[in-house]
Specification:
This protein is of the alpha+beta class and 192 residues long. The chain has a single domain, classed as Gcn5-related N-acetyltransferase (GNAT) (Aminopeptidase). Helix content is 19%, strand content 40%. The protein contains 5 helices and 10 strands. The protein has an 8-stranded mixed sheet with strand order 2-3-4-7-8-1-9-10. Strands 5-6 form a two-stranded antiparallel sheet. The chain is globular, with a radius of gyration of 17 Å. The N and C termini lie far apart (41 Å). The protein binds coenzyme A.
């Protein structure tokens, strides 16, 4: 099995997104402050986000990037990033080049003791309300990451594409497809 994976491996990740102006406000009151972090304070986001590292921050300083946080007093309970331009997606081992009107969401993390308050939904919705409503917001999510898909679908994001890479004897072959927004998989009829 391990030997077979060394010869051939496929990684697929879904593209979800929405027109910013169509973002739907999440329902509950989370009791924290949603804020944009000044670039001088970006390092604070490292403390509570194992999905983020110094190399990310160095890259983000060279492009248009925004860090959205949920604060509980001085503590950053959650953070997420929005990028413009290009971004290397480690999971599928490729650089994505975004259209000028597109904002790419990544490096989202909610501290485990703050989960269940829809903080990811609130942070992304907050950002969506701060940009041109005709701009697009997009992000990549694995199909097994139901908490993430649910967080996005409840603010109106829909599955609209897939990126996948096949690794054959160490060589990467990139593929993508884009399709009309699919019906949500995590919402009940009353929510969608
Ligand atoms: C994804 C993440 C940011 C969401 O955190 P959050 O904002 O606290 O999300 P919530 O817990 O409020 O919402 C998740 C929803 O998924 C639901 N959910 C979780 N596991 C589920 C499952 N197995 N099946 C169905 N629903 C599930 C929860 O019930 C909740 O919905 P509800 O509020 O209607 O009950 C957080 O789980 C996290 O940091 N994960 C690790 C990092 C990560 O995966 N980042 C995203 C990469 S794309």
């Amino acid at each position: 099995m391990v030997w077979r994976k060394a010869i051939y491996r496929k990684v697929l990740i879904g593209e979800f997104g929405i027109r910013a102006g169509d973002s739907v406000a999440p329902p509950n009151d989370h009791g924290l402050v949603i804020d944009l972090l000044n670039q001088d304070d970006w390092h604070l986001a490292l403390e509570n986000n194992p999905y983020l590292n110094e190399a990310d921050l160095a890259r983000f300083r060279n492009q248009a990037a925004t860090c959205i946080v949920a604060r509980d007093g001085n503590r950053i309970a959650a953070s997420t990033w929005m990028l413009r331009g290009g971004f290397f997606v480690t999971e599928v081992s490729r650089e994505l080049h975004l259209r000028p009107d597109t904002h790419f969401s990544c490096r989202s993390f909610v501290a485990s003791d703050y989960r269940g308050r829809a903080l990811l939904s609130h942070m992304i919705h907050h950002y969506a309300m701060s940009i041109d409503p005709d701009n697009q917001i997009t992000g990549l999510v694995f199909d097994w990451n139901i908490p993430s898909i649910r967080s996005l679908e409840r603010i109106g994001w829909r599955h609209r594409g897939d990126y996948w890479t096949t690794f054959v004897l160490g060589r990467a072959f990139h593929h993508e497809q884009h399709f009309p927004p699919r019906p949500p998989i995590t919402l009940s009829n009353t929510e969608s």
